[in-house]
Structures are given as structure tokens and as C-alpha cells.
Amino acid sequence: MTETIQLGGAKETGFFPRLRTIIGRRTEGRGVILLLVILAVLAFTQPLVFTALPVTIGRIALIGIVALGLTAVILMGELDLSVASTLAASGVVVAIIPDLRIAIPAALLMGIVVGIINAFFIAIVGIASFIASLGMLFALSGLAFVLSNEVPVSIANQDAGLAFGQPLFGPVTPRILLFFLVFIAIQLFVTKVKAGREFFAVGGNRQAAYDSGIPVKRRIFTGFIISGFVSALAGVIYTLELTVATPTAGSTVLLASFAAAIIGGNYLKGGRGSIIGTLIGASSLGVLQVALFLSGVQVPVQNTLIGAILLIAVITDPSSLRAISARVRATLPDRTKVEAQ
Amino acid sequence: MDKKTTLTQQMAVAQEPEKAIVERKTGALSWVAQNGIFIFLAVLILVASFAVNGFASLENLTSILNRAAPIGIVAVGMTYVVISGNYLDLSVVAQVATAGVIFLAVGNEYGLFVAALAAFAASLVYGIVNGVAVGYFKANAVIVTLATTYIGLGLLRFFSGGSIFFGNPDGPMEQFGQAKLGPIPASTFVLLAITIVLSILLTRTNFGFLVKSFGVNEKATRLAGVNTDRVIVGAFLVTAFAATLAGFVFAAYSNTAVSTMSQGFDFRALAAIIIGGTSVFGGRGSVLRTLLGVMFVSVLNNILVLVGISFGYQQLALGIIILLAVTLDVLSRKLGEK
User: Which of B89, B223, B232, B298 could staple B135 via S-S, CB 3.0–4.6 A?
Assistant: First the structure.
């Protein structure tokens, strides 16, 4: 077997066929469409959004940072529901330890430990990821309440917190800087590093990945550690910016981060997707939220809109569309037969 | 009879030998995973009645029953979604709150009958949206129901203005909420009735059989000619109807309703289902076991409250119990495969 197998479309030459192939392989289509639609509508109805760029980017960073970590897990076809309470618990950890030099590493370490525990139950014990991370979601939100004594905790070093909220240069606050660093790190990891590229293989066909020698279990550990670490980082950012940690923080993070990742075209069964897609998804949600804030729309209505977008995004997934079109096709011949009779 | 019965019989026959092999090989661990709930519950109640002050009093038991009823009704309904292998229905939170608010807000104005119609119409919408997205579009149930939760709660908060609704004093809701037979509240009878109905539906009808067989093997069920998508919609509808009933019971108990009233119902119901021995992989489980799981969760919660353990620890304990129960289920399955 020395013959190399040509993958679909690779034989195409010429600029436009090649372009079509490249576009056909990308998964971000729906995210781009949503972003363009939102931007087009806003250009007419709420042009203020474009002048409030720092606010908008800050909002995108807020939604996006957890979604980026989540994407690493979704690429492998797993879910990590525990991100929301990892964020809350790590935020509380930052607040209850007075010295920030100890508190921040401790909070980040907690995120890594959460990832390891998640991955242990998923990869070693063999529990479906949604249920293992659901248990962790519950346990960690309990932990956040326990550690904070069920009340919001202020951080001891208020000045450091206030300084953290200030722009470093131009409109770039530490939050935005960290978001882009995380984005670049994860993007490079899943596109250039072998371990990261193996995420796609693990998600696409786990058995095949295993058979070709990819350490599947270790990759699952890697993915959940990334996701745990990133959401802990988000918790640190939240607490430092607000200078106070609430055990209920991040209750809407779950919705927003999943929405960002799924709108960005990440296939929930794994194997397809991109970090850039998540960025696009987070951008469209962030712009939308800022616009809704500026228009004075209440938070529940915003959540309804984001929920609706998530619902539409998840049922317009290519595989969902295939499933439904197959059904529609299956019913059509029946009708024609009846009409013929 | 018709084609369906023969199909059902054939599938039952086909499953029989496999079941025997699994049962022979799994042994103790599997027995604990499936029937451990009987022992856990008995031990918990025994220990509590001796060691915990105030547990064995009549008022306390009545209060346990009162609190268990809404969660229990949600849990027995959601058992259908879990058995069908679709993980869970997070949107029960929104469904219970929607029903509760409708029963009080609409019920005060137009009477209970109109309120009941409106509430069940809402649950029909929930069930169909969830079911069609999961069944026909093959979308992930966790994400779909996460989305519908926020859509539903957002709409509810928008239309209710986030305010608390009180029932008319001595209105029908209040009367039902306070009704008792001896020490047993009326809501407990609703819980028992719905458990029996759903249990019969699951074990004695074609629909119940198809829900189970879909959970065991989705593809085989479809290839056998079953309209599996419709079965999924049915499972979500059962859950939605149960959640609406739970909203009624819950709103009647306190005679108040607000959009945040049912926070945590989804996880607590799921915990009850899993602890009851219904497998999250689908196909295996029963409504009656879920009832035991509900009692376990409620008694445990009650004990933790009586002992004075804070809310945080209660959540922590529930999370750990979910993980342990699922671990047990998985390990018993793994041993069964060997």
C-alpha cells in the first residue's frame, strides 16, 4: 500500500475551486453570518456600539475566555459543565486568601485540580462527561458557598483590584490582554502542537485515534485541565475586577460560553471546529449584549435572546440539518405515491 | 393484534438472552447499583431516627413529604428522558416556575380551570420544542434544554416583571396546599398517583417499551421501524406535563410563585433519578426507583438541615453523591461486559 489516498477536493486546482474547498472545510460559517447580521442591524439601529469599542471588547473577553477553554473540550466531543462553578469557586479562593501572590496561584491550581478530577471520572472511570462535570458543577458551587460562608467576600488588597480594572495601554485592560493571550495560546496549541492537533482526532473518531497510537486518555486530561485552568483564570479576573467574590458568580457564564462555542461552529460530537470560530461566536454575542444594554433591554430578555440563538445554532448544525432533511425526503415520496393513487 | 404488538414481542424476545448473560456476570456491584437505594434509604432513615434530634417527629415527616412532592413529581417525569438515553431535561426549572406563576397569576383572575389550560399549553410548547430539537434535529439534549431554560425563564421574568405572585387567601390553590389526610399532605397523593400512572405507562404500554428500547439501542429501535423521533418528543412531553403538575403543587404549598422558585430542581431531580438506580446511559431504570431516590435526597436534605449543616455543604454532598452513584453504575456495567 504505497499509494497515497487523495482526500476530497484536494485535486482541485485553480484559485476559485481551491477557495471553495477551503471555505467548505471551515466550520465558522454560521458564526460569521450571525456576526455580520448583528453588525448590519446595529449599524442602522444602534451605531453607538461601534464607538464604545473598549466596552465591547471587554464584554467579548468576558464571554469568550471561558468559551475558549470549553472549546478545547468540545473539540474532543466532551462537555464541561463545571466551568461555571469553577469560576465561582476560584473567585472565592482569590478573595479569601489575603496575599494575592499566594491567592492567584492557588486559584489557578484549583482550576487545574478540577480539570484533573473531571478527567479522572471521564477517562479512567468512564462516566459520560456531561454527568461527571455536572456533579462537579454541583460540588464546586457548594464549595464556593462553603468557602465564602454564603456571603460575598471582598478581597483584602482593594488597590490591586482597582488597578487591575484600569487600562494598561490604549483601551486594553488586563482582562482583554489575558483574553488575547489565552486565545493565542490555545489557538497555537490546537493548530500547531501535536498534542493539540490530536484533540481533533480524539473527537472525530475515538477508536481510530486510539488505534493509531494517540494517548486518548491523556488527551482528555489535557483538555479538561485547559478548560479548568481557563475558567479558574476567568474567576480570578472577575474577582479582581469587582474586588469582591460572590459564590453565585458565573451563573449565566454557562449559557454564554456554550453559546459562543456552538455558534462558532464547534461540533458537539467533536472533531470539527476551531478556536477562531469561538472567537467569532463570542464576538457576536458580546456585540449583541452591549447593544442590548445600550438599548436598555433587561437582562432576562437578553438571556432569552441568547438562549434562542443557542437553540437555533444547535439545530442548524450540519449534522442536525442532514438528519432533518433526510426525514423530510423520506416523507416526500410517500406523499407523491398517495397523490398518484 | 396489530403490527406494533408483534414488533414489541419480537424485541422483547430479542432482549431476553442478553439480559440473562448480563445479570449472571455482574454480581454484587450491579446489584448495589440497581437495588442499593433500598438499603441506603433504610439505613439513612434508621440512623436519622435514632441519632438526629427532631427527625422522627410527625411535623418533620410531614414537612419532608411536603418538600419532596414537587421535586418528586419532576423527577418521576424526567426519568423518561433519562431512560430514553437523552441525559436530562435542564429546562424543568423554567417549566416548574412557568407553571407555578401561571397557576397563581392566571388562576387569581380567571379561575383554576383556565390557569390549568394555560399551564398545560405552556408545557406542551416546552415538550414539543425540546423533543423536536432533540428527536428530529438530533441535537444534544443538554444544550437544547440549557437554551430553552434561559428562553423560558427570560420570557417568564419579562412577562411577570420578576414579581412574586400570591394566591387568593382561601382560594382553591391555598385549600389544596393545606389539605391533609391525617399527617399526609395532599401533594404526596399527587406524587404517588403520578408515579403509579407513569410507572404503568413505562412498563405496560408500547410507548414505555419504546422509550426503554430507544435507550438501550437507538439504532436497532429505529431499524425495527419505530418512529424514534416521535418517541423522544413523547418522553419530553411526559417530563413537561409532570413539571407543570409539580409547579401546581409547589405553588399551592406556599401559595406564592416567583420566576426563581424552582432553582436547583433540575439537578436535584437528576440526583434522585441517578441515586434511584436509573442509568444515565439510558435503557435501564424505573419510575418507582426514582421515587425512592427522591425520598433519599429529601431525607438527606432534611437531616443536613436539622443537624445545622449549611447550604454549601448540602450542595457539595449532593454533587459527590451524584458522582459516586454514577461511578457505581459505570463500574457495574464494566464488570458486566467482562
Answer: B232
